[in-house]
């Protein structure tokens, strides 16, 4: 059989083209209602290109060391994939000081900026994570809780003394970080923490915790 000339073009792929997505096919088996037999159907799914993935990290709930390690890995991966800002959604009522400062140290060494958006309640050691972001915002109904983190320890007298010393060091680092972003004295922040002060979005803005309240019109435009 002789080949036709000019050669026929290959058949077109009927699947829609989606920029940034790579199509691949799977053939799961489904049960037919007609003859109760297993009938293969063709399903097209899409794999998101790494450079088009949303540059966003969710920090929700109470974080321990294991979850903090996962978030740090997500941050470093996004940092390696591009230079654009990473948006970090925060809704963490509390976390251990160790977990908080592992996130703080990671954010401090990233090449790209991190923008934090508080979408619920954030308090305790989690405020250090908020303060580490280059840009900080809150939604209108979010709240901040300023109080001194507490933590129980087990062990010998020597181990307890060592852990208590490290705990006090991280507490001091928390107050220092909050002082730097708010422009307020460490003593003032410590006093407010002892009173377990709660901040609404507008109060947090006035105190200096955040730069803006998402969805709120700038002054003079209301």
From TrEMBL:
<dbReference type="InterPro" id="IPR023562">
    <property type="entry name" value="ClpP/TepA"/>
</dbReference>
<keyword id="KW-0378">Hydrolase</keyword>
<dbReference type="Pfam" id="PF00574">
    <property type="entry name" value="CLP_protease"/>
</dbReference>
<dbReference type="GO" id="GO:0051117">
    <property type="term" value="F:ATPase binding"/>
</dbReference>
<dbReference type="GO" id="GO:0004176">
    <property type="term" value="F:ATP-dependent peptidase activity"/>
</dbReference>
<dbReference type="GO" id="GO:0006515">
    <property type="term" value="P:protein quality control for misfolded or incompletely synthesized proteins"/>
</dbReference>
<keyword id="KW-0645">Protease</keyword>
<dbReference type="GO" id="GO:0004252">
    <property type="term" value="F:serine-type endopeptidase activity"/>
</dbReference>
<protein>
    <submittedName>
        <fullName>ATP-dependent Clp protease proteolytic subunit</fullName>
    </submittedName>
</protein>
<feature type="region of interest" description="Disordered">
    <location>
        <begin position="1"/>
        <end position="26"/>
    </location>
</feature>
<dbReference type="InterPro" id="IPR029045">
    <property type="entry name" value="ClpP/crotonase-like_dom_sf"/>
</dbReference>
<dbReference type="GO" id="GO:0009368">
    <property type="term" value="C:endopeptidase Clp complex"/>
</dbReference>
């Amino acid at each position: 059989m002789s080949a036709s000339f000019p050669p026929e073009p290959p058949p077109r792929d009927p699947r829609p083209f989606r920029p940034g997505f790579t199509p691949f096919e799977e053939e799961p088996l489904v049960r037919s209602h007609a003859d109760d037999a297993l009938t293969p159907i063709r399903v097209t799914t899409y794999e998101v290109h790494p450079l088009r993935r949303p540059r966003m990290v969710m920090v929700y709930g109470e974080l321990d060391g294991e979850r903090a390690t996962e978030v740090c890995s997500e941050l470093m991966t996004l940092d390696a994939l591009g230079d654009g800002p990473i948006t970090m959604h925060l809704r963490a009522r509390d976390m251990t000081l160790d977990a908080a400062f592992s996130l703080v140290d990671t954010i401090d060494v990233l090449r790209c900026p991190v923008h934090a958006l508080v979408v619920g309640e954030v308090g305790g050691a989690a405020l250090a994570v908020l303060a580490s972001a280059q840009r900080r915002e809150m939604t209108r109904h979010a709240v901040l809780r300023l109080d001194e983190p507490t933590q129980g320890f087990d062990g010998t007298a020597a181990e307890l003394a060592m852990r208590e010393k490290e705990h006090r060091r991280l507490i001091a680092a928390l107050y220092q970080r909050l002082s730097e972003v708010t422009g307020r004295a460490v003593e003032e922040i410590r006093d407010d923490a002892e009173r377990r002060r709660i901040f609404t979005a507008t109060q947090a803005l006035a105190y200096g915790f955040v730069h803006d309240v998402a969805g709120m019109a700038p002054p003079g435009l209301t």
